[in-house]
Design brief:
disordered N terminus, 11-stranded antiparallel beta sheet, Lipocalin, 2 domains, mainly beta
């Protein structure tokens, strides 16, 4: 065997050993988890959104400004973050023009102020939207269903999480541009089934 072939074979074997070592290190690294773990000292209120933890696959539809409806596939992944005191859930889909869309919502209950903190980070379009805090917005619970209400200049938004059971939920977003006198219900609607 020529020196060049021997060197190439040695490089391939070395790469395989390093790859196996990396996989084993990741599996044995206690600092890495798939969905995080809820901190036992976390306020009980966080349980309202615990159904989001895990991986979900779904189908969505959105009403476009011209009245047409665009349909899309969507993945939703929820995790405990910040030492298990908050939930971060990310949605992966495509905009109607085909561009990738990624948004992450951070949810935490602040017991000292007795208020929710809910913020949405639109990674694709680079902005953070403060939805609920001590000065604005709300989280309401009706049985298994949760509604997040928020305000933006000239727009009121209601996000409904309609939880059928442990493995199925529907997300529906309603919009009002007249201070809540009338609503465009189901502006966005996504139906999810747990995949992990």
């Amino acid at each position: 065997m020529s020196l060049l072939k021997y060197a190439a074979l040695s490089a391939v074997v070395l790469m395989m050993i390093c790859e196996v070592g990396t996989v084993e290190a990741t599996q044995m690294d206690p600092s890495k988890t798939t969905y995080g773990e809820r901190n036992p000292r976390t306020p009980n209120e966080l349980a309202v959104f615990a159904f989001l933890v895990g991986k979900w696959q779904g189908a969505g539809k959105t009403r476009l400004p011209d009245g047409k409806v665009a349909e899309f596939s969507v993945s939703w992944i929820g995790r405990y973050v910040l030492d298990g005191t908050a939930i971060a859930d990310e949605a992966h889909a495509a905009y109607p023009d085909g561009r990738p869309a990624l948004g992450i919502t951070f949810r935490q209950y602040d017991p000292s102020r007795k208020t929710w903190i809910v913020e949405f980070m639109n990674v694709s379009d680079s902005f953070l939207r403060k939805q609920v805090n001590s000065a604005s917005g709300s989280v309401t619970v009706n049985g298994r269903n949760v509604t997040v209400s928020s305000e933006s200049p000239g727009m009121s938004i209601r996000e409904h999480y309609l939880v059928a059971d442990r493995d199925n939920f529907v997300y529906r977003l309603d919009v009002s541009t007249d201070g809540g006198r009338s609503w465009s219900e189901g502006q966005i609607e996504m139906t999810f089934r747990r995949s992990e």
